[in-house]
Design a protein that fits this description.
Layout (H helix, E strand, L loop, with lengths): L1 H18 L4 H15 L5 H6 L11 H13 L3 H8 L5 H4 L7 H10 L5 H9 L11 H16 L4 E2 H16 L4 E7 H4 L4 E2 L2 E7 L2 H10 L3 E7 L3 E6 L4 E7 L4 H9 L2 H13 L2 E4 L2 E4 L5 E3 L3 H7 L15 H6 L14 E2 L13 H10 L4 E7 L11 H17 L4 E9 L10 H4 L4 E5 L8 H13 L5 E2 L17 H11 L2 E5 L9 H9 L4 E4 L11 H10 L13 H13 L2
Parallel strand pairs: 4-7, 11-12, 12-13, 13-14, 14-15, 15-16, 16-17
Antiparallel strand pairs: 1-3, 2-4, 5-6, 6-7, 8-9, 9-10
Helix pairs in contact: 1-2, 8-9, 13-15, 20-21, 21-22, 22-23
The protein binds one DNA strand of 29 nucleotides through helix 2, helix 4, helix 7, helix 9 and helix 14.
Amino acid sequence: MIHHELAELFDNMADLLEFRNENPFRVRAYRRASAQLAQLSEDVRTLDAENRLTEIPGIGQDLARKIHEYLATGTVVEIERLKQQVPPSIFLLIQVPGIGPKTAAIIAERLKITSLAQLEAAAHDHQLCKLPGIQEVKEQKILKGLALVRQGQHRRTLGAALSLAQRLIEQLKALPDIRRIEIAGSLRRMKETIGDVDVLVSTAKPAAVMRQFTGGAWCRQVLASGPTKTSILTTDGMQVDLRAVKPEEFGAAWVYLTGSKDHNVRLRERAIRLGLKLNEYGLFRAASGRRVAGREEADVYKALGLDWIPPEIREDSGELDAAADHTLPRLIEAKDIRGDFHVHTNQSDGSNTLQELADAARRRGYEYLAITDHSQSLKIAHGLSEAAMTAQLARIAEANSTLRGLTLLSGAEVDILKDGRMDYPDRILKQLDVVIGSVHSGFNQPEATITNRILSAMRNRYVTFIAHPTGRLHGQREPYAVNLPAVFEGARETQTALEINASPTRLDLEASAARQAVAAGARIVLSTDTHRLDHLDHMTLGLGLARRAWLEPKDVLNCLRRDELLAWIQQKRNRP
DNA sequence: GCCGTTTTCGGCCCGACTGTTTTCAGTCG
């Protein structure tokens, strides 16, 4: 999406300025603008058209003009001109851990390097340590950094990082000197992708904990290690940063280590205005240095005049103002979820029987579960013929006659065909409680075509929600070209919900898009797209995304009671 | 380059670790 392009453009601009040794605050302004654009919860074209770009925090007159220029022409002259004046290799070089703008400048200017392979060759030939400010140790460090880039080029998906981190935490908990241990960083904020895992411990013996951490079986390589802070690469190839503090510092440290960076900056600026100083050790009076708070997160926020802010929304996107005004949203929680809407049985491409899925859903305390196998055209997933779907309906009805405490909703994940028609006729669809519309074909169609397919599906009165609205698969497939603002508007108009698909490689809609959808008046469905029993657990990821999107129970269909839900679905079917 | 319960100009968060240095710049988060 276009706001991601702008985010990258401004991040590049920040790199360029840093490389040229320009005013660091100007660099920061571009970085902050980039972060804001990446998570923009409104359509940037609309904001531009309505002259409201400067409403985005960190966007002033100048950056608004550059955004406008980019939207109008596809480029920003000033940035392009600056790019001409620096060696193109700097964008490559600063990707390498240990190489920042200063080192990149020296390497790029003295050796005419144009690729990471050349950088590696130069390091092996000991060309780097002939440069000023670089000795052999630094050269070796760059080689290690290069190896890291090669291994972990892609950020991990939230689901993968979460399970690896939880396993590691279980092992660390067994260490003798750890009093308390918690996940922090982007993982705690439930970002869609995770670069490294941050872990915070409280201990009276930090040095001992650091020794145990680097000496454990999980440690493949120590990247940096000091008395209170250590970074390692685990045997899974994941970078983990461990920070140790005293119990009375834990809350302040947890705030600091959870971030986001911009959220922290806002907190610290606020502290200064209040005559206080905030760091990872606590909140202090600026004048006397006397400690005001630090043991618990809530104490720190409270002393700053703020309600405690849930980690998922600590992104400098309005949460501080809301916390000061006591208007933070009551974010959706696991206990609000009454059911799952997107589940495949072994009749199509799932692994489990109807009964197994029903039992698992009941054990989770769900009130309802929609059974949604694939439709006939999706041969690769054994989509059900009309006859097979009719038989499936009978099985669901039969299962419901014996089930207690859980209702199975009959449903289907129905392909939206290349021409926009649904893959079952209405006489089938009308028999289903829940109809999912999905794009599984024609991914390369132009934006207008795909958007119209989805809009025409939404106009079908039997379609309850649109699954994975962008089709993106992390690390495998780019999103198809779709006009999301038009889809959001269509969703509102036709009373069709939109899915946050919690499957780890999908996470689609992403959080900023979901926030935009709800702002446009659409309802959201959280679903796991389960193909195997344990996939039901992915609801955790969907919840994380929903919380990042500031969603409250009223925004999400899963929070409705069964009768409320069916009434909501019926409402659309009854529309003129 | 942004921004204002102190400001339309003059500020702008804070600290750990590393390597190259003999007191600190660079990098990272």
